[in-house]
Write a structure and sequence with these properties.
314 residues, mainly alpha, Nuclear Transport Factor 2, Chain: A, 3 domains, 4-stranded antiparallel sheet, elongated
Length: 314
């Protein structure tokens, strides 16, 4: 999603801008975290609330951005591919049954009711659940019948509240034998952190406390957005000869004013981020194309603008 891809960059950029502003004005360090209530009413006071609240929210917003990207469509696929390369992804659970003919190899046709070990037979679920309890899978579990005959069923713990229970086993639905097992404690560290991060992102990991924190984060973010638009309104020109409905945009040429080392590092990093986060890359490219087009149009207007003649006698 574009918003998830760009959130982290917006947060980091905002914190850097606020730090540079406070450093340039030699303001007290406490004003990085606490708004300056002595500031005059207007854009300065609004900026103080906007920036300091954003600093407090930064860690939570970066966490939500990172955990959201891990299960997004495109960036999540790249993240999963990276975990596979590092052999740090969620382990696969084998559902192969030794000594059982593969699906589609034929066999006797059952008559007179559902065959043992099939999804149509209610006793199969009881048999598999009993095996799961005997194997130590307590709490709520999810039983997934095999998509084809000749494969094991899977049973997975689905307790996503800390301490989580996410062990999985494969069970032969006919005999009840456990044929494979994958315990959460044995997962690679990155796979564990990714799973826990997603549950925290969804407000499940720590129960009501988790949900209250997310609600507070959302409320704070709404305030930051409103203050941002309010600053834009307060910065608008109000002189009779320069009235405008909104604040003036930043001056062009900011990239050209960067030091060479920033460009040397920034360009490849931006390209890499655009590849890893495709939605971010596409929207950034679109923004650059629009900005270039607006710059070209502005230069053409300046060239065609008539020049007023100098006053006589000068």
């Amino acid at each position: 999603m574009p918003s998830i891809s760009s959130d982290a960059l917006l947060v980091v950029g905002g914190v850097i801008l606020w730090w540079r502003r406070r450093s340039a004005t030699r303001a007290r360090t406490t004003h990085l975290l606490v708004p300056d209530l002595t500031a005059r009413k207007g854009v300065r006071r609004t900026r103080g609330w906007h920036a300091t609240t954003g600093v407090w929210l930064a860690v939570g917003l970066l966490f939500l951005s990172a955990t959201g990207l891990t299960w997004s469509r495109y960036a999540g696929a790249n993240f999963g591919a990276g975990l596979d390369i590092l052999r740090a992804g969620t382990p696969e659970l084998s559902t192969t049954l030794d000594g059982v003919p593969p699906p589609g190899s034929g066999g006797e046709h059952q008559h007179g009711g559902a065959a043992p070990g099939t999804a149509d037979n209610p006793a199969s679920y009881d048999n598999v659940l009993t095996s799961a309890r005997s194997a130590g899978l307590s709490g709520p579990v999810e039983i997934s019948p095999a998509a084809e005959s000749g494969l094991a069923w899977t049973v997975a713990q689905v307790d996503n509240t800390w301490p989580v229970a996410k062990d999985r086993i494969a069970v032969d639905p006919t005999t009840g034998a456990v044929t494979a097992r994958s315990d959460f404690a044995d997962w690679p560290l990155l796979a564990q952190l990714s799973s826990l991060g997603i549950q925290a992102h969804m407000g499940l990991l720590f129960g009501p406390i988790n949900q209250i924190l997310l609600a507070a984060l959302a409320l704070g973010l709404l305030c930051v957005i409103v203050w941002g638009y309010r600053m834009w309104w307060q910065r608008r020109p109000t002189r009779a000869d320069r009235r405008a409905p909104l604040g003036a945009p930043p001056a062009r040429g900011g990239v050209r004013g960067l030091p060479w080392w920033a460009l040397l590092l920034g360009v490849p990093v931006t390209v890499a981020l655009g590849w890893a986060l495709p939605w971010f890359g596409v929207t950034l490219l679109g923004f650059l194309l629009i900005d270039i087009a607006l710059g070209v149009l502005a230069r053409r207007r300046r060239r065609t603008m008539p020049v007023s003649p100098a006053p006589a006698g000068r």
